[in-house]
Every structure is written in structure tokens, then in C-alpha cells.
């Protein structure tokens, strides 16, 4: 290599060295974050495995709580095993909890089973799960697919969680020949409209100013 480099060559060499240096520094800086993420993933796997073992417990309530914790943990790798436990589970409340866990793990069809149990003695359990939905949209398509009693329960649930898009979904049911369905639809429309027109809670306004994000409507 010649002792003296042309100015253009020196500039190219400087750029190359700068890029290599930046890549090295970035790699070093990212290492702790990667290690932390790997540790978190390992902890999640261990938690999921511990909960999976509880699905074989003789106590039905322990199995139900384990399924609900798996739903919160949302570890997709466990989905196939949970499907197997769901098939062999005899207790209806545990089956419902497993359906909810499967929905949270990406099995969208499992939500229908959760909705269907609104018309059962497990209504409160089903309502508690549906209240955890981030948005009411997943319920919109299911409303026409269920029987009249379940539609009434769904309309009551949508009255609590519905948004502006829900209004167009529930309003046609106000013309139902079933007076209970019509009443539930009108109730849902009133409740959703009331929430949408209500002033924002002061805390929500504060959060909006701090984060710059759209405020969440607080009843």
C-alpha cells in the first residue's frame, strides 16, 4: 500500500472506519437490551410451563385460574397443548377459561364459545372475559350468529363497551320483532351515545397533554 493516499481515498477510508466504529458501538449498546429481552422470554417460558402443569391439577378452580393466567401471559407456543387440554376438559367453567386463553393466543374462532356462554349460568365469567377486549369490534360480526337470548346479553355488553362503530351494528336490532332484543338495542344505543357525548374525565385530559395521544373516553 502506498505511503500516501489521495484525498479522495483518505475520505473513503475515514467513512469506512466511521461506519465500522458506529456498528461496533451500536452492537455493544444493544447487547444489554438483547440480554434483558432474552431473560424476559426465558422467564415467560418458565411461567407458561408452570401454568401448563396446573392444567392437570385435580382442583377445577386451580385449572381455571391457570387458564386465565395463560390468557394474560399470551405465550403462543403453548396454544397446541392448550387445545389438547380443552378437548379433554370436563368442567364447563374451565373449558370457558381455556376458550378465552385460546382466543388470546390467536385462535379467533374461540371467541364464539366465550360469547355463547353469555346464555348460560357462566354469564358473569363470560362477561368478565369480554370486558377485557381492547375494542368491541370482534363482537360485531358475532352478533347475528347467536340466538336471541345471547343477542340480548351481547347488546347489554356492547352498551358498556361499544364505540361509534358499534352504533351502526346495534341500531337495526331496535326494529326486532322480539321486544326484549329491541329494548336491549335501544338501551345499547342510548348508553353508547351518552358515553360518546360525555365530557372527558379530567385525568384523561391530563394524560392527553402528557402523552400527545388521543384521550380514552371515560364514562
Would you give an account of this structure?
By secondary structure, the protein is mostly helical. Among the domains are: 51-132, Leucine-rich Repeat Variant; 153-210. It has eleven helices and no strands. Helix 8 packs parallel to helix 10 and helix 9 (164-170) packs antiparallel against helix 10.
Number of helices: 11
SSE string, helix = H, strand = E?
A: HHHHHHHHHHH
CATH fold category name of one domain: Leucine-rich Repeat Variant
Average per-residue pLDDT, rounded, comes to 82
The Cα radius of gyration reads 26 Å
Overall body shape:
flat
CATH architecture designation of one domain: Alpha Horseshoe
Which helices and strands appear, and what pairs or packs with what?
Layout lengths: L6 H48 L5 H14 L5 H10 L3 H13 L5 H7 L6 H8 L6 H4 L7 H14 L2 H7 L8 H19 L4 H10 L8
